[in-house]
Amino acid sequence: MPGPRALAVVEKAYRGALEKQFFDALYLAVELHRQLGGLDVLLRGRAVTYGVRAEPVPALRIGSRTVDTLTDPRRDLRTLMDAGVRIHAEESGLAAHGLGPDRLLDGVLAVPDAAMALRWPEYRMVCYL
Predict the structure, then answer these.
(1) Cα–Cα distance between 97 and 81 in angstroms, integer?
(2) Per-residue pLDDT averaged across 81-107, rounded?
(3) With contact defined as beta carbons under 8 Å apart, do 44 and 94 qualify?
(4) Which of 43, 76, 91, 124 is an S-S bond match for 26, by CB 3.0 to 4.6 Å?
(5) DSSP-H helix ranges across the chain
(6) Is 85 helix (H, G, I), strand (E, B) or coil?
């Protein structure tokens, strides 16, 4: 019998500061966790970079205008983890970007490829964000 949690797979990385002024996959994950009563997130491909330590997102200057409301996926992951969401990052995605598990944010777990797919029966649903 599947458990109470759902699994959200995030493969597509950040596609642009101005595109994401109001909504993105991690924002959706917060709502899914709240509405479904539990969520795990698997970062794959370029999205594994969300889970690594990095400098804060800088403001964007366009002509005379400064956009300082840009999304910070690391901050969003911390919000998810503080809410009880478990975050996993596939090892091949990390390796493809020259990153090792030692670069992950505290609380983000590196997992071998396909390890989470083997666990799909444990989840009440699996969705791609």
Answers:
(1) 23
(2) 96
(3) no
(4) 76
(5) 25-36, 73-82, 91-96, 115-118
(6) coil
Q: Looking at the whole model, is its pTM more than 0.85?
A: yes
Helix (H, G, I), strand (E, B) or coil at 46: helix
**What's the CA gap between 115 and 90, in Å, rounded?**
9
- Percent of the chain exceeding pLDDT 70 equals 91
**114-116-117-121 Cα dihedral, nearest 10 degrees:** 150
State the Cα–Cα distance between residues 68 and 70, nearest whole angstrom: 6
Find out whether 5 and 42 touch, Cβ atoms under 8 Å. no
Under a CB-based contact definition with an 8 Å cutoff, are residues 95 and 48 in contact?
no
